[in-house]
Amino acid sequence: MSLTRKQRICVLLSGSGTTFAAILDYQQRHQTHFEITHVVSDNPRAQGLDRARAHNIPTTVVPYKQFACRSDFDQELLDTVVACAPDLVVLAGFMRIVDSAFVARFFNKLMNIHPSLLPKYPGLNTYERVLSAGESRHGSSVHFVNNVLDGGPVIAQVVVLIDNNDSIATLSARVQEAERMLYPVVIDWFCDGRLTLQQGQAHLDGKPLVTPRIFHFDQHHGELHLESTKSSTG
Ligand code: GAR
């Protein structure tokens, strides 16, 4: 099913906004099925807000620290994003956990990117943890969001090989370069009507994604290569 108009995307971010910038750059360079129509942040000082304003994208701040209680913040965040009337809500370095009412309101159209090969290493400090564990691979996962932290159905992953002399800085730089290529592609699958979430199961091109689509990062050429998909749909 191909959708007839560009899908409206609301991006939520908390920090530098490099993920948002990568999605916007992709939108500007490709014939995408999406358009970023709004950026929302919990942090008034997020650099991502400046990036959005520089491109005349409407922004709204829901300043977390100014709310007396968490539930007031959650309600304001929900109301703000509902008012944006998005077809897809994209979490892009949004460092607050969205509450269950938010998940329920945007279920099936709420996506996140997390810097690990989920289900391994949900939560914070993934680079430190994979290096301490002596892993040989790290990467990033794009997933639909449910009520479990970093626990929703994984759609696609990019695998990045770890070198013996990697530090947090070198590894995170490579993973971030790779994930900035992956996220816009997955967003466009959704906005093209190719990707859906049905009864908690991600579907791509009408078939269940039994395992995520796996890409490998070719750091020498700065490219993603899709792994053979023979076993990833049912
Ligand atoms: C990205 O690397 C993203 O994967 C990660 O935060 C970074 C945001 O960068 N997301 C999470 O850790 C979510 N749990 P940015 O602020 O420059 O876009």
In short:
The protein is an alpha/beta fold.
Write a structural description.
- The chain is of the alpha/beta class and 234 residues long.
- It folds into two domains: 1-106, Rossmann fold (3-Layer(aba) Sandwich); 112-234, Rossmann fold.
- The chain is 30% helix and 27% strand.
- It is built from six helices and twelve strands.
- The chain has helices spanning 18-29, 47-54, 70-83, 100-105, 126-132, 168-191; strands at residues 7-13, 34-41, 59-61, 88-91, 110-114, 137-144, 154-161, 195-198, 201-204, 207-208, 213-218, 223-226.
- It has a nine-stranded mixed β-sheet with strand order 3-2-1-4-5-6-7-11-12, sandwiched between helices. The protein has a three-stranded antiparallel β-sheet with strand order 8-9-10.
- Helix 2 links the parallel strand 2 and strand 3.
- The longest helix is centred in the C-terminal third of the chain and has 24 residues, at 168-191.
- The protein is globular.
- It starts with 6 loop residues before the first strand and ends in an 8-residue tail after the last strand.
- The mean pLDDT is 96.
- The structure holds glycinamide ribonucleotide.
- Residues 13, 15-20, 92-93, 113-115, 140, 176, 179 line the site of glycinamide ribonucleotide.
